[in-house]
Write a structure and sequence with these properties.
The protein has a single domain, classed as Rossmann fold (3-Layer(aba) Sandwich). It is built from eight helices and nine strands. The protein has helices at 2-7, 20-33, 71-81, 91-101, 107-117, 149-152, 156-167, 201-210, and strands at 39-45, 61-68, 118-123, 140-146, 170-182, 186-189, 192-195, 214-222, 236-243. The chain is globular and about 40 Å long. By secondary structure, the protein is α/β, with parallel strands linked by helices. The protein starts with a helix and ends with a strand. The protein has a seven-stranded mixed beta sheet, sandwiched between helices. A two-stranded antiparallel sheet has the order 6-7. This is PNMT methyltransferase. Keywords: Methyltransferase, S-adenosyl-L-methionine, Transferase. S-adenosyl-L-methionine binds at residues 46-47, 52, 68, 73, 125-126.
């Protein structure tokens, strides 16, 4: 239900750059295109059941570590990584990223590369000072997190603490890329109504500074009326690039 609400039309409409999913993919593609964010390991915090956030990253790292609190999400990621039938069809996302990156690469090649680099799928709890239970060794060169921290934090203080906790997985000088919701208090997944801490742009900036990050880029997207489908009350989406 979560995948259907957020990663099928109308939200996952690739006919225009004005829609939210193409906006998110472009933020990531443009940031990774600089070539500055690269290294051995990228950790994705709170991957959920999705892989779209990793498509531009996979060209720049030897290994991608996906993480999620829920076993059901980790199992879904594992099935996709192994190419098992019946998993969510991410091919429209992969095709779109290949188009905007402009390398002329067959989308199947990018899919194969991401599957090959998604080598570890680990449990994580962002509310623990040591989110993985043991330190990531060596620390990650980059950290990515999309729509996780605000969705698992009961208040702004917990959000800021969680950001500091996951920041400990990153080496000094490493880069953090965050995508998240602005002004959202809940979202629906089937019969479940899940709470979210409503964030303003200043909340995100303050939490990053408090966790020892220097902000490099900040972008925001206002959710248009056509995409306010009732599955949540989100006002917009933010993208932040920060450096530890």
């Amino acid at each position: 239900a979560y995948l259907q609400n957020n990663y099928l039309p109308p939200r996952a409409d690739f006919s225009s750059e004005e829609f939210v999913v193409p906006w998110k993919l472009r933020c990531l593609a443009e940031t990774f295109a600089s070539g500055e964010i690269r290294g051995r390991t990228l950790i994705d915090v709170g991957s959920g059941p999705t892989i779209y956030q990793l498509l531009s990253a996979c060209d720049h790292f030897e290994e991608i570590v996906a993480t999620d609190y829920l076993e059901v999400n980790r199992e879904e990621l594992g099935r996709w990584a192994r190419g098992e039938p019946g998993t969510f069809d991410w091919s429209p996302f992969i095709q779109h990223v290949c188009k905007i990156e402009g390398h002329g690469e067959p989308w199947q090649e990018k899919e194969r590369r991401l599957r090959g680099r998604l080598r570890r799928i680990l449990p994580i709890d962002v509310h623990r000072p040591d989110p993985l239970g043991t330190p990531l060794c060596p620390p990650a060169d980059a950290l990515l997190s999309a729509f996780c921290l605000e969705a698992v934090s009961p208040d702004h203080d917990a959000f800021a603490r969680a950001l500091a906790h996951v920041g400990s997985l990153l080496r000094p000088g490493g880069h953090a890329l965050l995508l998240g919701a602005l002004g959202e208090s809940f979202y629906l997944a089937g019969a479940a109504r899940l709470p979210v801490v409503p964030l303003a742009e200043d909340d995100v900036r303050a939490a990053l500074a408090g966790a020892g990050f220097t902000l490099r880029d900040f972008r925001s997207y206002a959710m248009p009326p056509a995409l306010r489908t009732g599955v949540d009350d989100v006002d917009g989406v933010f993208f932040a690039h920060a450096q530890k």
